[in-house]
# Entry
Amino acid sequence: MPVTQRRNRKQLRHSIGLLLGAVRQESGQIESSPTETAPNSVKLVDNTLAFGVENEQRGRWIHATDSTGAKHTRRVTASSRDERSITVSKAFNSLTGSSWIYELWDADISPEDVHEFLNQAIGGVTRKGSIATVDESFHIGGQINSFTLSSNWAGVRDLSWRSGFAGSELSKLDGPMTELSGNVTATTDSADFREGSAAARLEIDAATSSGEALAEVAFPAVEARGFDRLELWHKSNIAITSSNLVVQLRQGSSTHESLAVPVSQADRWSYLSLDITAPEKNGALDAVWIAVGSSDAGANTSWFDDVKLVRSNSETWHRVPREVWTVSAADRQFTLSEDARLPYSRLRVTGVRAPALLESDSQLCEVDTQYVINAAAAGLLRSRSDRRGSSRDVSMQQADVYDQLAQALRLRMNTPANIRWVDE
# Structure
């Protein structure tokens, strides 16, 4: 397996600490805790840490990771040479012990400041550092021609429509589903649908309970062992979580698959593509059930439409000419013009997204790491320079050096071509 050269947030933080000579202990192991009671623990003990004089560590920063992986950044208020302990300004939430590790930083550079400047560096190259991405969650239907992009999308390169695939239509749901519970009313909605002439509408009572079967649509037995994805439309009048509703693939009296309906916003149709875990068992599917998941969403109304099975990677895609679609930065949408004349079909959008900001120590940086290190180091040095002095101090001069190195690396990054940008 190839080794990645990308670094995570912890590695970047340590690199900057070493570069600036600001980190005194990279991976200190807390050997024991003085006799304290959580949540009033303010001390940690490390017999391997070099202690010189009493209170030598006062004013420095502790960045500790507890046994659960939670992070705690504290200012040091005292250190004891004899006790080999460090006392912090604010109590830890739990008792320190041998399962903890910590970093010790100089007083003028807080680890939290390092995280902020790392993200500032990443945010400064949104376009140059953008990451190629694909979204196939869009589908033409119901005479809808405008589609909203995810918040992290930076730009669109191409748009394609699916002209064919290997699959099997289970039900168009142009008629009502069969009720399986007294807590649901199944009807047909010919005013709000996405395919054919109507959608199946389920009015679900608040009295439903976990796992309760709600409604079904039956059909002649289908040989489904070659299909590993279930696709369908869904809408709810309230926001739901992934534990509220499930779609079940049935064979006789057996449930072969129980697929969770993903998180959805209220009053918005979503085209779902659900992975089937064991397609080899689906030799003769004859019904699809809608059931309550592990938690009840309460009273709500859900719509379903166009249920079909699809074989992954069997699709044929055609590129939509660029002259028949536009991108609006104001509302983060792409829109098909009347000249597009596309049939009812799934869409594939290719483009770029903004590089992710670093929110955890294990998260890998998606931008050139040397650029990020230099840009963050420049920001940190400027933040600790003498703002009141009449002359430029050493920190400001060092910041200029690292800033020049960062900008040289930034210029070497290539801005993606043929992108219609949606970010400002």
